[in-house]
Amino acid sequence: MTGREILHKMKEKVGLGSSASDTGKGKSKMSKNVTLGYHLVKGKSSHPMEDYVVAEFKQVEDNELGLFAIFDGHLSHNIPDYLRSNLFVNILNEPDFWTETESAVRRAYRTTDTTILDKAVDLGKGGSTAVTAILINCEKLVVANVGDSRAVICKNGVAKQLSVDHEPSKERAYIEDRGGFVSNFPGDVPRVDGQLAVARAFGDKSLKKHLSSEPDVFSEIVDEDTEFIILASDGIWKVMTNEEAVDCIKHIKDAKAAAKHLAEEALTRRSSDDISCIVVKLQ
Fold it and tell me: Residues 100-112: what's their mean pLDDT?
């Protein structure tokens, strides 16, 4: 194995290794107008990068799938890395994926979380949020999420959120019904049992009695009015609204350049968290 290959393997192992950022692009074989770009920037914390992405077009017999995901780990890079390698595999292995896609996604999220909890000895503590988007034959988009990474679509220049931010303050009743509590102490952000700032996540075995891993799932038809999709971790959304993010890149034709510009704008606005974003241009 060459030194370059070893370095690449090391970067895969810890997300980005010692790099400050990572970027890439791709394009659909089904439609020349559909392209993707992604960009990641490590935050200012001392721990390794905990954001992971999936951004690819995959041929499945006569169909093309665009598979896009942001996995934002907390106290762990093992769990988001596991999700990157396994969640879409589990979704596509569901027998009713092509006929009942939304149900298949929900089931795969549940079974994947169960496996993560069973592997807690190997994967360690902590957990991960997730937002996934599957573009089926450039015609239908299926989005699912747990946590506060977010999917936003732009139609006719207007932002539309396709995911739900699972904030502890919004799901207080569910958490308390399961014996947990929501507290702003320590700090000024509502947290489950005073620890976790999201109400749904993969993993987090020590908090699982009070957390859900049930995704919200939405479908959207991709038509001539659909311009692009943004998937991003909360390193973007802590400092930008949906409309601000859309306005920031709506005039940039290249998807990779758009993703990079969006991340750089978040840094300009003093985002200190890990930043990861995917932009899928649809025209």
Answer: 96
**Sequence-ordered list of residues with C-beta below 8 angstroms from that of 11, at least 6 positions apart, any chain:** 17, 19, 22
Task: Report DSSP letters for 222-255, one per residue.
Answer: --TTEEEEEEE-HHHHTT--HHHHHHHHTT---H
**In this structure, are strands 275-281 and 150-155 parallel, antiparallel, or unpaired?**
unpaired
**Both tokens assigned to 239:** 């400092």
Which tokens go with 88?
Answer: 């879409």
Which amino acid, 240?
M
CB 38 within 8 A of CB 84: no
| Residue pLDDT, tens place only, 112-154 | 999 999 999 888 889 999 999 999 999 999 999 999 899 999 9
Predicted structure pTM score: 0.88
CA distances 283 to 28, 32, 166, 181, Å, are: 12, 9, 31, 46
Closest listed residue to residue 260, CA positions, set 282, 247, 242, 278: 278
Report the run of H or E that residue 80 belongs to, with start and end: helix 78-93
CB 96 within 8 A of CB 165: no
For 113, list phi and psi in degrees, rounded to 5. Answer: -65, -40
Query: Looking at residue 209, what DSSP letter applies?
Result: G
Residue pair 262/38 in contact by the 8 Å Cβ criterion: no
Would the pLDDT of 4 be above 50? no
CB burial of residue 96 (10 Å; 0-12, 13-18, 19+)? exposed
CA angle 141, 24, 20 (to 5 degrees): 120
- Gap between the Cα atoms of 184 and 77, Å rounded: 25
User: How many angstroms separate the CA atoms of 78 and 46, rounded?
Assistant: 16
Is the CA virtual torsion 41, 43, 48, 51 positive or negative?
Answer: negative
Whole-angstrom distance, CA of residue 84 vs CA of residue 68: 10
